[in-house]
Structures are given as structure tokens and as C-alpha cells.
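Question (not urgent): is this output format expected?
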Amino acid sequence: MPPLMIFAAGLGTRMRPLTDDRPKPLIPVAGRTLLDRALDLGRDAGAAPIVVNTHYLGDQIERHLAGQDVAISREPDLILDTGGGLRQALPLLGPGPVMTLNPDVVWTGPNVLSALMAAWDDRMDALLALVPLAQATARQGAGDFDLGPDGTLQRRGDHVYAGAQIIRTDRLAKIGDAAFSLNRLWDLMIADGRAHGLIHSGGWCDVGYPAAIPLAEALLDG
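Got this back:
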């Protein structure tokens, strides 16, 4: 099974004041933290190993994970963003394709990681989970991608990146910056026709700001 990287190093600025004294992944939704919900998805999909990166109030995340089957990739001095953070964690993850997951999302329906693994094949350098913009609960802003009839991605469409993917990591070594977004890799893969998308068939909510929490809880209750 592919390894899993859970991105938990961010400052959570959109979630203030709830993140004044805790990292965003430790905010509870319907009685369970966002990080634990992400871990549930990974374990249910059989991901191994599971790695979580930390920066802002990272000691709280480490205490929360103490004794669990999770490795920590620490970013004490500089938030490395998704690309730099994934590259730093590669010694813990291994060289092959990896799954990544943003914990500030609530999902219903089939396990998105299992669905990505079932759809992955050698034509792909990345396979991104997508949600149609009209079905993206609590989403603020426009869509991210257009999904072609062959499943390949282009920028600026009516599908939202849902925060879960499988991605090959070999191109990370070619980027000189310490901190950078995985958008840099996606653009290279899109140009080569190697970035694909998979529409999530269940519900989805972006838990990025306080008012989204009751929307996420209503989705889970529905």
C-alpha cells in the first residue's frame, strides 16, 4: 500500500481565533479532531507508513499522536509548504508514489484514498481527488481544474481540488527552493499530460474557517 503524508504544519490563519491556542488539525468537528478523521481515512485505506508534518504548535500535535503508528516530520524553523514539506518527509515515506491528505476537510461516502488507489495506473504522475464546485460545501472562491474526457487536468475549471491525491515524488529533487507548493509539480505534470483527476462520489466540506464547522457537522449528520 502507498504511504500517506498528512499536512499539519500550517498556521491556520483563516481559522482564527480557534487557532490562537491550538493547531488547526486539532480542532474538533462532531466530537473528533480533524487530524483523527484524516488518520481514520488513512488507516482504513491501509496506508503505511503514515507521516504527519508539524510546525505551528507542533508540540501539541506530537503529544496528541504519542504512542500511535505515525511518524513525525518536523519543520521547526520554516514552514516548507506542501512541496517542500513532502520532500523533507521522503526519508520517512520512501521513494515510490505517495498519497497526501489535507486534514482540514470532512468527507462522506466512499474512502477517497481507497478510490484513488483503485484508479491509479502507470499513465499518471499525479491523481487528484476533485469535487464539482457546485457540490463543494463551504468552498470560498472559484474552481481549480478542468477535467478532460480522458481524465487529464487543465487549470481554471469548475472542479475543486479536494485535498487528497496520489503523486510521484521524483520531480521534487529538481526544485531548488526550500519552501514551495505542490502546485509547482502539478503544473509540470499538466504540461506533460500526466496529471489526472478523480471525482469524489460522496460529500465534501472545506473546514477552513470557523463558520464552516457547523456546515461540516450537518454534512456528517446527513
